[in-house]
Amino acid sequence: MGRALRADAERSVRAILEAAEQVLVDDPGASMEQIGERAGLTRTTVHRRFANRKALMDALAISAKQQLADAIEAGNPDSSPPLVALHRVTGNVLRTKNSWRFTLGSPLADTSAAAEIWDRINVRCLDLLARAQRDGLLGPDTDLEWTRQVYYALMSEALQRFPEDKEPDAKTTDTLATLVVDTLLYGASPRT
Question: Taking the CB of residue 114, how many other CB atoms lie within 10 A of it?
Fold first, then answer.
């Protein structure tokens, strides 16, 4: 890993990454210059931070997946009761995925460094599902890998209900997190 960036350089990088996500979600072929304009920076500054588009895409992938990992940890998956943690993690992940729709949905985000973060995310998810299983929320014979895949698919479907043009409010996020968790745990059958 390179040396740490100065505070102004860190702000520039963050501004470029956020601008890139906003620009690329509307125009995947947008130029580095268009991204710089959205970030309020010159093309020279963008190229100083990212030598080329691939370097920018790699940084986007790492940043988005790290934010996803941080969102999971913010849900306290190890210390909260499993049902509470599942709701918190789901809400946090939905908000993060909504903010990074382009990057997290792009095959260009599948870099080796981002893949390592994704592997950690999968492990954390399986750990939480194992806690839920031990707590009786999931059956003792439940295939946790299959359940993880279904959980991810449910979150992807829930994202389709978020308005793409604005950040969802807490009530919408909580409602969708509840829908995801309830569907995962109870399916479509009536709760007793």
Answer: 24
